[in-house]
Each structure stands twice: as C-alpha cells, then as structure tokens.
Amino acid sequence: MKGGPVELARISTLRGLLGLSPVVVFMLAYLAVSIVIGDFYKMPLSVAILVASIWGMVVYTGGGSLASRIETFSRAAAHPSIMYMVWIFIMAGAFASVAREIGAVDATVELTLRCFPARFIVPGLFVAACLISLSIGTSVGTVVALTPLAADIAGMSGDSLAFYVAVVLGGAFFGDNLSFISDTTIAATRSQGCKTADKFRANLWIALPAAIVTLVVYVLMSSGASQPVVEGHHSPWLVVPYVVVLVAAACGVNVMIVLLLGLVSALLLGILDGFSIISLFGAMGAGIGSMGDLIIVTLLASGMLGIIKAAGGIQYLLQCLSARVSGLRGAQGCIAVLVALVNLCTANNTVAIITVGGIAREICGRYGVDPRKSASLLDSCSCIVQCLIPYGAQTLLATSLAGIPPVAPFVYLYYPWALAAMVVLSILFLFPGSYSRKTAD
To answer: Which ranges constitute the DSSP H helices of 393-436?
Structure first.
C-alpha cells in the first residue's frame, strides 16, 4: 500500500453527482419516507435499497448495455468478502435458532440474572462487548456472541430491546477500532506506513475517554434498576453452547469456527436432552430462513455501492474534499470527513480505509500530519459511521438476531457519538500532541 502521490483522474461535476445519486435516492426512499409517514418501521430497508439500485443502474450511463451494468452490480454483490458475510449470517441464524430451541439462551440469561445485580447488567454487557471485540478484532463476531443474550435479558428485565442491542454494538466497535488484529487496524496502519502499536497509543487517547463516558452513562442509567424476577429453572448444562462460543471468540478463533462449535455443541445437547434430530434440523432451517431479508439487503447494498464506485461517485468525493485542505487542522479534518463519507457510501469500514488511505497519506506528507494520527482518524471515523448507518453489516446482523428494525438502535447509540465528539476535540486541540504533527526525521 506504499507508494508516491496519488493522482486522481478528474471526474466532472455532473458525472460525480450522478455517481453519488443512488445514496441520495436511498436516503429519500428510506429516511425521508419514514419521516413523512411518521414511522421508521413501515418502510422496508430492502425496498429502499432496491429502488436506489435500479436508479444507480439507470444513471450509470458509462456502464454500457443493461447486461453490462447488471454484471457490474453482480460482481460487487458477489465479492468474496460479501459472500463470507453471507456464510456468517447463515451460520449465525442456524446457531441462534437451535440454541433458543433447546433452551440454551434462556438458561444463560437466567444464570446471568441470578449472578449479577441489576445495576451491573448493562455496564457489564458493554464492558464484555468491549473486551471480546478487543480480543478477537471483529465487531461481527462480538455481535454474534452477545446479541441473543442481550435480547433475552432485555425481555426478562422489561427494558428496551433496541437499547440492549445498541449497548452490544457500541462495545463491539470499541474493540474493532482498537484491536491489534482488526482488519481496520491493519488497513489503517499499512496504508499510512506506521506501526500498529503507535496507532494503538494514538487511538487510545480518543477511544478510551469515549468508552469511559459511555460506561458512566450506563452506570447512571442503571443505578435505580430493579432486579428482574427469574421464574425458569433450566438445566445449567444448557449454558455450554454459549460458553463455547464466548470462550472460542475470546481466544481469537475465526468467527465461522466459533459458530460451528456453538452449533455442534447445541445439537449434541439437544439430542441428549431428548430432542429429535429432525426437530433440531427444523430449527436450523427456520434460523437460516430468518436471515433471508438480511442476506437480500446485504447483496443489494453491496451491488448498489459497486455501481456508485464504478460510476465515479467515490472518486468525485476524494477529488472535491482533497482539493479544499488548508492547514494542519484542516488536513486532519479532511481525512476524517473523507473516510466517513466513503464509509457512508460503501457501508464497509475496511473498504473505506483502503479507498481513502492513499490520498490520506498524500495529505499527511503535504501538510505535516503524523501518520499515526492519520491512521487513528481513518479507523475511528470509519467505525463511527459504520456503527450509525442502518445498512451496515453489524447493525443488520444484530437487529436481525434481535428481531427489530435496523433503525431501532440508532437513538441509543451513545458510544459512536461520544467517539465522534472525541475525534472533533482531537482535531481542534491537536491531541495527543506527540501524535498530531509529524516531526522531522
């Protein structure tokens, strides 16, 4: 990823705006319609993305014939990283359904509620999500491991389900942002040419205060919580599938292997508990089927974003913003805004970092921004947007597992907003000082 200055081919204003227009159409079809009718749960996300995808192929005039445009869309939708996500969705649906069928989720929630006072449940869930994601370097794996438990705890405590999902999402992105083995960390450090440990130290000044503020908010919100009544008496052995999942995840095992281990252990426990193999397979099928809408949304969104990139929309963003840099603060602000907007268009924080990395490095060299701070901004700002957008893979997976609309957790996402505030402060006041301005070698 190293190299000289990045030369961007000029994109005309008309072409650039048309390239970006599917994002606007999506926002109008989903957010604007929801606001007009006063209900964010009425407009299906899949329909909004379908409308935007069709519009994208219509305005992509440089894509040749309709068959060629559909091929461009399909190549983006069938990208290996997207197919990998589809596999995770399928496995997650199967595991979650079987675990619920045999009573593993209820047993784990009962044990949690019996062992922990009510005032520690929400802060503990946030800390657990932070630590697991920091250990395994993936927000998706953390969401898979904790969302079903969070959903059932919310049900037993009578609290908002969307709130508990938001707690898991916030903690998941904290670790994803900081972890040494996260793909976003690897992409950010390699593109900026700095060491992972240096980026971690620079990032810690931004992410840790945001996490502490969020944790304090959760502690204050939970101070008067009443202990939920636990009525069930499930066998303690039923917690084994979730123990397997959590331990394997904390050990850094690949998320696919984590889900496979959880699924196999759940099936074995179900058979030992008297469930027929056919009924367990039926639960697996129902779980896989429940992921159908999520998979469709993921494929449509990926294809639409591929059209945006092919039409020059991403390149136009880079062209416009990089031409308006002024001073050290302006350079850092430009890097932050660039990766945030590209992530908004691609719904993939790693792809956003890779896309912006080259031009960000050029900005660093031209205006004296320390590469360690640039890597921190790339990772932090991409994670902020990825956590907030309702069509990001993590939010789609979490809300699908919890059975709520993708937009539901938005009002409870305290951590990404706290992180955004810290990013703004770090740019305005140029902290951490030793990581903001590049020093002479």
So the answer is: 393-402, 414-428, 433-436
Distance CA 33, CA 26 (A): 10
Structure tokens at 46: 């899949």
User: Residue 226 has what pLDDT?
Assistant: 59
349 touches 382 (CB < 8 A): yes
Identify the three-state secondary structure at position 288: helix
Residues 6+ apart with CB under 8 A from 99: 105, 148, 241, 242, 262, 266
Amino acid letter, residue 27: M
**Calpha distance 11→172 (Å, rounded):** 37
| pLDDT number for residue 4 | 45
Residue 3 has pLDDT above 50, yes or no: no
pTM of the shown model = 0.83
- Give me 1's structure tokens: 């990823």
Pairwise pLDDT comparison (162 vs 96), residue with the higher score: 162
Distances (CA, A) of 353 to 185, 208, 299, 401: 9, 21, 21, 28
Instruction: For residue 228, give every residue at least 6 positions away whose Cβ sits within 8 Å of its Cβ, in sequence order, or none.
Output: 113, 118, 156, 157, 158
Contacts of 218 (CB under 8 A, 6+ apart): 122, 123, 126, 167, 414
Give the 3-state secondary structure of residue 369: strand
Element housing 431 (H / E) = none
Show the tokens assigned to 215.
């944790």
Tens of pLDDT along 7-53?
Answer: 556 788 899 999 999 988 988 888 888 888 877 677 888 898 899 99
- Indicate the SS3 state at residue 64: coil
DSSP labels, 117-130:
-HHHHHHHHHHHHH
Contact 188, 375 (CB under 8 A): yes
CA dihedral (292, 296, 301, 302) in degrees, to 10, reads 100
Positive or negative torsion for Cα 21, 16, 396, 387:
negative
| Cα–Cα distance measured from residue 415 to residue 146, given in angstroms and rounded to the nearest whole number | 17
Contact 261/248 with Cβ under 8 angstroms? yes
Kindly report which listed range (55-59, 100-104, 229-233, 398-402) carries the lowest average pLDDT score.
Answer: 229-233
